[in-house]
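User: Hey, quick favor. My workstation is busy. Could you predict this chain's structure for me?
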Amino acid sequence: MKRKSIYALAISAMLLASCKEDFIERPSLSGTTTGNYYNNAEEVRAATSTLYSGLPWRNYESRAQDAIGDVMSGNMFTYTDVEYLNFTVSSASERIGAAWGAFYKIIGYSNVMIKTFEEKKAAGGGASYLDPAIAECHFIRGTLYFYIARTWGAAPIITDPGATALSGNFNIPRYLQKDVLRFALEELQLAEAGLPESDVPGRLTKYVAKGMMAKLYLYNKDYANAKAKAEEVINSGKYSLVSDYTGMFTKMSMNNNPEALFSIQHQLAQDPWGTGNIKNPDRGASALRTAEADAWEMYIPSLDLLKEYEFGDLRRKWSVMEHGWTNPNWKPQRVNAPKYNEFMAGGFKYDTIQPTADGGSLSPTRSNIVKYFAGPGKSFGGESVLGQNSGNNVVLLRYADILLIYAEATLAGAASTSDAKALQAVNAVRTRAGLSPRTSLTLDQILHERRVEFAFEGDYWYDIQRQGFAKAKAMIEKQNRGTVTGASYITTFTEDKMYLPIPAGEIVQDPELGKDPVPYYN
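Assistant: No problem, here it is.
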């Protein structure tokens, strides 16, 4: 996908401008002539490609995804986003505002594209290329409302920002979470109906929509539909687990691999900011900082997560750097650092005894994250890195998730299951990790599998949340959220912590957001 030119084309075509609310995006009311745009499949696909690109997703995937999905869930430790570590998040949190703004901005783009493509089709445009594009927009819109419903619970739903702007009524209410989830599901159903059976790697298909629907159904505890949709993806034969687990997150050559259903598409570039994947420095061990690659280890593995891995689980070394972890291909060197250079000359060694100035690593949990860290730079034996930027896609839905969704949906709230297909699904994931197969399954075993399989991918908080308050409280309060110098436990997890507060600035502009939610559907 030609994402640089694509983004420029789409923005110039849409002529988006901000409205009164940050979460409402609308086209210029002076009117855009669609006759000059979207006259063929290439132009239309160029426009919808922007919905996948890192640029609009940047403020979510850069730190907000980590803070919400992994720090809050107890998978990551940090000294930066402490409010997510100890559940004191306020409506003024930078990460909340960033995620909210990113989600509603992309929804705004989707809204404008849907309206524009429908108008183009009504004027005689080609349905053969406009209909799949409209379906792509429905998928993005549905996926984002799924994220919004899980993150904030009740939230506004915007589908026609132009009409809202013309009406002059910007008092948009919050709608009930169940209605936001229903809207998200209806969007994904439209996507499923309109997307093609197959496309080039990285583009959406109806099986991606089925996979996201399975995830939403599972969140709603609609086990029958979750199982059915997951099974459709499995039976399609279009996806498979890849052998290079680490490479899924660290190698550009593995972008859009056979395990990836839906990914944010990145390019190795510094400009515009967000074109590249900027998770690299926040996760990289400081011992791997070089002239090419930034690394300041803002987020590190939690002690509680490290305890979760079974003995022999290969995902531990595939996801985490600890004492003894090595990469002989990485040979970082620094100017005027003879001891460091000597220590690293034979290849990178993660060492918690060596002084940090000489190449040692002494993070508060004596560990660092492997996922999405591309290495010290091409000159030093790693992937190409430009400062904070790598070219790795950020994967939001992968085949391993479909397999575990299928197993949990088969369990369907029962105490245990020995269903052969459910076991086959879970054991495929475990076999790749070098673990022995299960002979029966419980919910806690599946949640364990999800935690270690998707660690640092921004998903575990939602796994905890969907258990309901009582179980979520029990899960959170047994976690050690401290460091090697002192344990720390949450003792006051309350029900109001299950969802994040709406950004304060949004409520100031739209006081309706501070009121009780109302129904969206009659």
